[in-house]
Amino acid sequence: MSTATCPSGHPSVSTDYCDVCGLPIGAAATPTPAPQAVAPAAPAVAMQTCPNCSDSAAADALFCESCGYDFTTGTMPRAASSLDLSATPPTAPPAPSPVVAEWVIERWVDPDWYAVQQSDDPCPSPGLPVVIPVAEKSVLVGRPSRSRGIAPEVDCGDDTGVSRRQAQLTTDGQRWWVEDLQSSNGTYVAPASGPLPEIPIPPGQRQELNSDDRIYVGAWTRLVLRRATPEEQAGQA
């Protein structure tokens, strides 16, 4: 018995229609479409969570884009410091203008005062006075003591007859007063035209100074309070 082959390749006894699939023996075979190739799914991107702000970031990210957390060192970015070269340096405050003292105190070694004090210390050689600018309205006369925190504006440290806190000078801008601070040897005041004083001023009481008064303290120290000259003021600027 002869057989025929259908367009799909099935052997068929029937010569008009395929015994297997029913296709006409003489019809052209309908090509079976090839299966579509399915593209492989993209691999999932590995992620990590920022321990500082909890935002997500790629697993290979070096820094968190939200807060700047450094995944490699486990630290937050350091705030700018004044030591950083890239940081803007702080603006320095303007330097205060120097205060020009309107008054000065001349500190003299007075041999006449030394002669009546009967001090055992040798008297220094008289010379030019030490000129001390006075810019404050209250100044201390005495000898310094680091242990006691005493730093007088009018330092008579070379005269051991002067107490640490000898006297206080105060002013209202025009007039001056002197007050003895319970000193050991007393504070004396006398005009330049008169004799040396013999009686100290009462401790704890302010005494107003006249323009030609002299203040005597210690074994040889004489103080003269006067207005500063223009040259002295220019030298302070």
TrEMBL record:
InterPro entries: FHA_dom, SMAD_FHA_dom_sf
Stored PROSITE patterns: FHA_DOMAIN (PS50006)
Superkingdom in the source lineage: Bacteria
UniProt keyword terms in alphabetical order: Phosphoprotein
Cross-referenced Pfam families: FHA
SMART domains (alphabetical): FHA
Residues covered by the FHA domain: 139-189
Protein name: FHA domain-containing protein
Source organism of the structure: Kribbella antibiotica
